[in-house]
Design brief:
This is Amidohydrolase-related domain-containing protein. GO terms for molecular function: deaminase activity; hydrolase activity, acting on carbon-nitrogen (but not peptide) bonds, in cyclic amidines; metal ion binding. Keywords: Hydrolase, Metal-binding, Zinc. InterPro entries: Amidohydro-rel (IPR006680), Metal-dep_hydrolase_composite (IPR011059), Metal_Hydrolase (IPR032466), MTA/SAH_deaminase (IPR050287). With 462 residues, this protein is an alpha/beta fold. It has two domains: 107 residues, Urease, subunit C, domain 1, CATH 2.30.40.10; 304 residues, Metal-dependent hydrolases (TIM Barrel, Alpha-Beta Barrel), CATH 3.20.20. Helices cover 38% and strands 23% of the residues. The chain contains 17 helices and 19 strands. The strands form three sheets. Strands 1, 2, 3, 4, 5, 16, 17, 18 and 19 form a nine-stranded mixed β-sheet that branches. Strands 6-7-8-11-12-13-14-15 form an eight-stranded parallel β-sheet. A two-stranded antiparallel ribbon has the order 9-10. The longest helix is centred in the last third of the chain and has 18 residues. The radius of gyration is 21 Å and the shape is globular. The model has no long low-confidence stretch (mean pLDDT 97).
Length: 462
């Protein structure tokens, strides 16, 4: 297949942009890329898809999200963090069934695909949500998924007993750590290698030192990557101080730092933490919307960039973002640091597109396969329809994508060489059936959790 007449932002090592460009796809790979005129001459008999007026970018990569939480969108808006987590989200998630987990995964994946995300890192999937259902949803949909299954053995957050987990979410070593290894053996490399299984460790304070060390040992022995929330809120700093550590000195002490680890949020860091991150090659998943909405703070992205720490981008969960649209996340990531530093030149659009593509691929250990449009890499790409009135005019395709486009402007999505979104509609999934199931199951979860009297509008409804 030839995809022709588009503006193509390749994200290759030279950051080449092709005007009137074309991509030649054979099976699941990019076989050629260049100017439309040249490729049409080389492949005169190839079927063609004309993408005049579109911008093509590599498939977007979300390095931090919670698929289960999409079923809980809007259930905990405008709450402070302890109430948000302990009185709403954990209570709701503690009442999930495996069928709810599958419905939530399909809802998340459908939204991600329609808004241009072709690969994601699930950060912490609980056993009760049904890991098989999550993997099956990835397999059926055509998306690429790195699936972190929870690892934990302490049922609280940080060092405060007031931050107690809902009993329905409590897991032990056997269920969490050994259960992840079981799922890795069953699913890793499945779906034409679109599924990777990860350790999704709970935040320090929720995992004993001994379990962290056992996990990191298995990680190195078997090649299972690790993702973990870290230094997200002040309570995390309090925990690290209580054990005479900074965030990264603690992570270093239990073997968490390294090129196969993605740490999410990373708001409350010292200068020494940034040096440890850079020296170890550990990756950061930046989640500006979640950090802002929950008033967690602001990640030191400009400082991390100066230290050459690899930074990806994530939407986090729907209750603390309300969308899985990584294009919207890109805009905030580019803007928020300008206001914080009072410097409009920091974190430019080009840096943010790198976060959402090639940096994300590097964080997931997949930059030899995805993240840029190069000959021999997987055919994962997104076409954004720029012919709409709210997108005109534009002069720089990168700034147009980062500052103007949203997921609703995505027209075509290709993963592994297969079209999964066409004309803005899901090809591999029944959107209306997914929506009906999500509406039904979300109400059932809220009722089962005993929160149907609290998850409702604040203003009177007649």
């Amino acid at each position: 297949m030839l995809y022709t007449h588009a503006t193509i932002v390749t994200m290759d090592s030279n950051r080449t942009i092709f005007e009137d460009g074309a991509i030649h796809v054979v099976a699941d790979k990019i076989a050629d890329i260049g100017k439309t005129k040249d490729l049409k001459e080389k492949y005169p008999n190839e079927e063609e898809t004309d993408l005049t007026g579109r911008i093509i970018v590599p498939g977007l990569i979300s390095t931090h999200m919670h698929t289960a939480q999409t079923l809980l969108r809007g259930t905990a808006d405008d709450l402070e963090l302890v109430s948000w987590l302990c009185e709403r989200i954990w209570v709701l998630q503690g009442n999930f069934t495996a069928e709810d987990g599958y419905a939530a995964a399909r809802l998340s994946i459908g939204e991600m695909l329609k808004s241009g995300t072709t690969c994601f890192l699930e950060s912490m999937f609980a056993d009760r949500y049904g890991f098989d259902g999550l993997a099956r949803a990835v397999e059926e949909s055509g998306i690429r998924g790195c699936l972190g299954k929870i690892v934990m053995d302490i049922p609280r957050y940080a060092k405060d007993d007031a931050w107690a987990m809902h009993p329905g979410l409590v897991e032990d070593r056997e269920m969490s750590l050994l259960g992840t290894v079981d799922m890795w053996e069953k699913w890793n490399g499945a779906a034409n290698d679109r599924i990777c299984v990860w350790f999704g460790a709970r935040t320090p304070g929720g995992v004993s030192d001994a379990l962290y060390k056992e996990m990191t040992t298995i990680s190195k022995e078997k090649g299972i990557p690790i993702t973990m929330h870290c230094a997200e809120v002040k309570a995390d700093r309090d925990f690290f101080a209580s054990v005479s550590h900074t965030p990264m000195s603690y992570c270093d002490s239990v073997g968490l730092l390294g090129e196969s680890t993605v740490l999410a949020h990373m708001v409350h860091l010292d200068d020494s933490d940034i040096k440890l991150l850079a020296a170890s090659g550990t990756h950061v998943a930046h989640c500006p919307t979640s950090n802002a909405k929950l008033a967690s703070g602001l990640c030191r992205v400009p400082d991390l960039q100066r230290a050459k720490v690899n930074i990806g981008l994530g939407t986090d969960g729907a209750p603390c973002n309300n969308t899985c649209d990584l294009l919207q996340e890109m805009k905030l990531a580019a803007i928020i640091h300008k206001g914080a530093t009072q410097d409009p030149t920091v974190v430019p659009a080009e840096s943010v597109l790198e976060m959402a593509t090639i940096n994300g691929a590097k964080a997931l250990g997949l930059d030899d396969k995805i993240g840029s449009l190069n000959i021999g890499k997987k055919a994962d790409f997104v076409a954004i329809d720029m012919r709409k009135i709210h997108l005109q005019p534009w002069f720089n395709p990168v700034s147009a994508v980062v500052y103007t486009a949203t997921g609703r402007d995505v027209e075509l999505v290709v993963v592994d060489g297969k079209v999964v979104v066409n004309n803005g509609e899901l090809v591999t999934m029944d959107e209306q059936e997914i929506v009906r199931e999500a509406q039904k199951r979300s109400k059932e979860v809220v009722k089962r959790a005993g929160l149907d009297g609290r998850v409702q509008p604040i203003w009177p409804v007649e």
